[in-house]
Amino acid sequence: MTRFERRDSPIRDHDASLLSRAAAGDRRAAADLVSAHTPRLMALARRMLRDEAEAEDVVQESFIRLWRMAPNWRSGKARLSTWMHRVALNLCYDRLRKARPVDEEAPDIADDADGPAQALHQNQLSARVHSAIQNLPPRQRAAIALCHFEEMSNIEAAEILEISVEAVESLLSRARRALKASLAAEAGAWMERMEP
Question: What angle do CA 5, 11, 15 make, to 5 degrees?
Answer without folding.
Answer: 105
